[in-house]
Amino acid sequence: MTKLSVNINKIATLRNSRGGDIPNVVQAAKDIQNFGAEGITIHPRPDERHIRYQDARDLKSVVHTEYNIEGNPIKKFMDLVLEVEPTQVTLVPDAEDAITSNAGWNTIKHKEFLSEVITEFKNHGIRTSIFVDPDPVMIEGAVATGTDRIELYTESYAVHFAKGNLNGVRPYAEAARLATKLGLGVNAGHDLNLENLRYFKEQLPTLLEVSIGHALISESLYLGLENVVQMYLERLK
Ligand SMILES: CC(=O)[C@@H](O)[C@H](O)COP(=O)(O)O
Ligand SMILES: NCC(=O)COP(=O)(O)O
């Protein structure tokens, strides 16, 4: 079974555009779970331009599905995650000024750093995942860090799929096979949408979780949030 974790950063972005508290991210998380989503993902960035650190704390008591916090493990982020103790932390090597996540970890170069951070989170009972490109060397490097899971960075798949190139999924299918063989759980995310999700899921039978935000919230403007959550769940069956 592949779980749907809804990334609610975009709901916070909309709220922040006007100040105030509309839409309310805590209510959105409650509703999204009531609509059937199996997880809530947030990705607080150091400048808090999307989801805020306080949102992460406020969400703790309402997320009764899988709570996934993504981000670059700078000290401030690590302290937040250790305080909130979500189900899972996903480590993403995003630069402070990056518009969105745009690269996976070099798990060889950063092996020591990742191993230390992962050990700290695991000692607190938090499942770890690291954001990686579908590169066998990086998957093998991920195993050496001690992480529980990887999150495959799916932008390249989404770009190929949009151009009609179904072969873009091949590196992902191979990466997932290798990761599973080596004992890693496999998550995926970035630019997944209603069009490209089903095929991706079909090609990666061991896929445990997808986190989806930008497309899902955008599609909800036209189709409604409840309806769209149901449509994603249907594609993951
Ligand atoms: C790791 C990843 O791909 C997502 O966390 C993505 O960065 C979504 O966050 P934004 O919607 O804030 O770009
Ligand atoms: N980890 C990926 C994520 O949370 C959402 O990415 P996107 O759907 O906003 O591109």
Number of separate helices: 11
Which ligands, by name, code or SMILES, are bound? Answer: 1-deoxy-D-xylulose-5-phosphate, the ligand NCC(=O)COP(=O)(O)O
What do the pLDDT scores average to?
97
CATH superfamily: Aldolase class I
Tally of separate domains:
1
Poorly predicted tracts of residues: none
Radius of gyration over alpha carbons?
Answer: 17 Å
Shape: globular
In CATH, the architecture is Alpha-Beta Barrel
What is CATH's topology name? TIM Barrel
What's the β-strand tally? 8
Distance between the termini: 7 Å
Determine and state the CATH class. Answer: Alpha Beta
> Could you spell the SSE succession in H and E letters?
EHHEHEHEHEHEHHEHEHH
Pathway: Cofactor biosynthesis; pyridoxine 5'-phosphate biosynthesis; pyridoxine 5'-phosphate from D-erythrose 4-phosphate: step 5/5
Function: Catalyzes the complicated ring closure reaction between the two acyclic compounds 1-deoxy-D-xylulose-5-phosphate (DXP) and 3-amino-2-oxopropyl phosphate (1-amino-acetone-3-phosphate or AAP) to form pyridoxine 5'-phosphate (PNP) and inorganic phosphate.
EC number: 2.6.99.2
Subunit structure: Homooctamer; tetramer of dimers.
